[in-house]
Design brief:
The chain has about 150 residues and is mostly helical. The protein has a domain of about 100 residues. About 40% of the residues lie in helices and about 5% in strands. It is built from 5 helices and 2 strands, in the order αααααββ. A two-stranded antiparallel sheet has the order 1-2. The longest helix has 16 residues. About 20% of the residues have low confidence.
Length: about 150
């Protein structure tokens, strides 16, 4: 029987030479996320719903748009921010500039969709959303037109 010796170096992860390393390709925006964001923002706008209450929420939504859309997300950030009672165009631009300068924050578009879902707005919401206050939202529902009785002969 052959006696084997323990080799601790055999258990270490070796970094492959630069020529053998795989590089990841850049993420390309297919447009689907922009369409999804547009749908949710239109629903927020229809109900005048503020999902930016609190600095952390506002900042994170800015990070999400900046991460996904870079400069093209600025308009989305303004559209979402304008329902906050303290909305200011200049301050919103300054905040978005900060979001653009921050890299790898870990905040993604999922954060935006989560904040919208907390306000009862999502891609899967088929009703139009309206609100009586920024805190409480309710969905509107329209009943089908009344059916008239038809005499039976």
């Amino acid at each position: 029987m052959e006696k084997l010796q323990f080799d601790p170096h055999a258990w270490t992860n070796k970094v492959p030479p630069a020529s053998e390393r795989k590089t990841s390709s850049p993420v390309v925006n297919t447009g689907d996320s922009a369409d999804d964001v547009e749908i949710v923002i239109q629903r927020l706008e229809a109900g005048h719903i503020d999902i930016t209450s609190g600095y952390d929420n506002w900042r994170d939504i800015g990070f999400a748009f900046a991460d996904e859309f870079r400069e093209n997300g600025r308009d989305y950030f303004h559209r979402v921010s304008r329902f906050h009672p303290d909305y200011d165009e200049r301050n919103t631009d300054e905040q978005y500039d900060k979001c653009l300068r921050a890299h790898r924050t870990g905040v993604t578009l999922n954060t935006f969709f989560y904040k919208a879902r907390e306000a009862a707005v999502s891609l899967h919401t088929h009703e139009h959303i309206c609100t009586t206050s920024a805190k409480y939202a309710k969905s509107t529902f329209s009943f089908p037109p009344k059916l008239h009785a038809v005499p039976v002969f």
